[in-house]
């Protein structure tokens, strides 16, 4: 069946010509496309193991060589083409960590369609938004969804919502189904290295999600350099414990960095110590990337595990701030080297280097990949602050986007710097220390939640007059979500009722507030806006009073 024609992808804000010329001249940007990327590796490393993990199709633990991965990607391409998916169509890729993640990722890329990297936890609210913004032609899904939900049922609800607003629902592609004969695979699509190849998701700060257009030229530059900086080679065995869709396990150096170098990617179905440690032992894993809460669960477990973790050489930690004291435990408890990673799907990635002294590795979040990553640390008026002082991080460079998909250049300075919303201090060595955040976002153990998005869903409740969502400090996750709500008269809806309301709205579970506070009014700032800062302060006082009261 051929789906109806889709809109053309709207133009994206690219790099100005003089920057593009410079990045090309410096060989940061090359001609390699993702179709060619895999084909070259399949020639070079045909019989080496590329991907290991559970298979949605067979339900068994599966190993694919580079040649097999390339053939399977060809079969996926054939399947998508037969279904009417065309180059530059947008395709939601929503799979758990499994071998099909790799075959479908490369199959879509080979077809020239653009994967949209959704998370397994996304539900109908997020998926409907992505479909609308990207006018998605297909939705690749499989495996059980969050809390055992059936992703097909979710896709049906998405279709209903889209039809209700005059949109055409995407074709549903089940990645657990058998694939056609690879012999029918068409040649890789001929798209340019400087054309958009996929859409990453932004952590976001606003009510509607933002999509990040990335090109093979810019992304593969960051991948090659990441692989080099992190010492990735053919002997590397990388355990992917975070959802593969995140930029961190995808490209820092992640799945792409390891495949670039001819190494092996091991897909972990979950990051728990028994699963991860079992795989580290059985697959002789050398490297992995985790968020701080996962590391905090691993450290005590590693001290008493019966598993042999001796192969593990490098543990990368990023996505949220790692406490210096926890950082110092990685060597003693895991017997591995720590690498801190401070990055963002919009581009810029910082690494502590593997040969740097301990104080930099445990006390900073690293320095940029590229000598051409431009870093500015500014005050609220956009003026550079003195070196070493806290300020807002702005950045521009060869793999940092200049604008979101179909959103113009909002979130960027007129001269093209991305406003990260992160507060940092920059050391004379160029290392950055992340000191805080000045954006309306909650970082719940590495998962980013836009306050405004959750507020919007809460405000749809008929008995709420106002809602303000803020971060609540948490010993384990770093932050959790707290919603302050003003009821529209008594009786106020209970927390259980509000949770049910959000569940019916179909938002991802990790965005549902961990705590609700019913209040009569919100503190306001000097300009008359709700002051989230004062709410955070009130919450801290409240939490402190609670701990003092409990025995
Ligand atoms: C990574 O990417 P995103 O897009 O999910 O989130 C980016 C934001 C940053 O702006 C910052 O607020 C926070 O996540 N963040 C960190 C951090 N790493 C990311 N905050 C403090 N310390 C860190 N080490 O999270 C991401 C992308 C590529 C590589 C690594 C992480």
TrEMBL record:
Domain AMP-binding enzyme C-terminal: 453-529
Pathway(s) where this gene product acts: Lipid metabolism; fatty acid beta-oxidation
PROSITE patterns membership: AMP_BINDING (PS00455)
Enzyme's top EC category: ligase
Membrane-topology annotation of the record: Peripheral membrane protein
Keyword Ligase: yes
Localization terms from the record: Membrane
Lipid biosynthesis in keyword set: no
Domain annotation AMP-dependent synthetase/ligase: ranges: 39-405
Enzyme Commission number, as recorded: 6.2.1.3
PANTHER family: LONG-CHAIN-FATTY-ACID--COA LIGASE
Protein name listed in UniProt: Long-chain-fatty-acid--CoA ligase
Organism of provenance: Phytohabitans maris
């Amino acid at each position: 069946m051929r789906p109806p024609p889709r809109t053309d992808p709207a133009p994206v804000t690219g790099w100005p010509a003089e920057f593009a010329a410079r990045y090309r001249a410096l060989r940061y940007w090359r001609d390699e496309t993702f179709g060619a990327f895999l084909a070259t590796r399949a020639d070079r490393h045909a019989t080496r193991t590329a991907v290991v993990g559970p298979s949605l199709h067979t339900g068994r633990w599966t190993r694919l060589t580079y040649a097999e991965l390339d053939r399977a990607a060809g079969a996926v391409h054939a399947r998508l083409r037969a279904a009417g998916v065309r180059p530059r169509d947008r395709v939601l890729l929503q799979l758990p960590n499994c071998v099909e993640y790799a075959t479908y990722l490369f199959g879509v890329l080979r077809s020239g369609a653009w994967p949209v990297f959704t998370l397994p936890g996304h539900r109908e609210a997020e998926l409907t938004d992505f479909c609308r913004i990207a006018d998605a032609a297909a939705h690749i899904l499989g495996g059980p969804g969050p809390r055992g939900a059936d992703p097909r049922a979710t896709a049906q609800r998405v279709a209903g919502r889209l039809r209700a607003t005059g949109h055409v629902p995407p074709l549903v592609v089940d990645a657990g189904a058998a694939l056609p004969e690879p012999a029918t695979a068409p040649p890789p699509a001929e798209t340019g290295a400087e054309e958009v190849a996929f859409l990453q998701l932004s952590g976001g700060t606003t009510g509607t999600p933002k999509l990040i257009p990335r090109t093979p030229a810019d992304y593969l530059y960051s991948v090659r350099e990441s692989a080099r900086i992190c010492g990735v080679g053919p002997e590397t065995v990388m355990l992917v414990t975070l959802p593969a869709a995140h930029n961190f396990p995808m490209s820092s150096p992640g799945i792409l960095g390891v495949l670039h170098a001819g190494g092996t990617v091991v897909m972990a179905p979950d990051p728990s110590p028994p699963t991860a440690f079992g795989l580290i032992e059985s697959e002789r894993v050398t490297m992995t990337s985790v968020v701080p809460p996962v590391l905090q669960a691993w450290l005590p477990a590693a001290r008493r595990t019966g598993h042999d973790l001796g192969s593990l050489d490098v543990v990368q930690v990023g996505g949220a701030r790692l406490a210096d004291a926890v950082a110092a435990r990685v060597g003693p408890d895991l017997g591995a080297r720590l690498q801190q990673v401070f990055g963002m799907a919009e581009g810029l990635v910082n690494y502590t280097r593997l040969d740097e002294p301990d104080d930099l590795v445990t006390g900073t979040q690293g320095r940029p990949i590229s000598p051409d990553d431009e870093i500015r640390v500014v005050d609220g008026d956009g003026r550079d602050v003195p070196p070493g002082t806290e300020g807002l991080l702005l950045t521009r460079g060869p793999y940092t986007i200049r604008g979101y998909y179909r959103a113009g250049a909002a979130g960027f300075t007129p001269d093209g710097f991305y406003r990260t919303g992160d507060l940092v201090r920059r050391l004379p060595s160029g290392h950055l220390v992340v000191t805080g955040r000045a954006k309306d976002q909650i970082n719940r153990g590495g998962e980013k939640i836009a306050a405004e998005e959750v507020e919007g869903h809460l405000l749809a409740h008929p008995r709420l007059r106002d809602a303000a969502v803020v971060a609540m400090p948490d010993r384990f996750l770093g932050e959790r979500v707290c919603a302050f709500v003003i009821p529209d008269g008594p009786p106020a809806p209970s927390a259980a009722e509000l949770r049910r309301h959000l569940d019916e709205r179909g938002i991802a579970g990790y965005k549902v507030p961990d705590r609700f506070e019913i209040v009569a009014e919100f503190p306001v700032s000097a300009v008359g806006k709700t002051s989230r800062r004062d709410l955070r302060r009130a919450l801290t006082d409240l939490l402190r009073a609670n701990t003092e009261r409990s025995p």
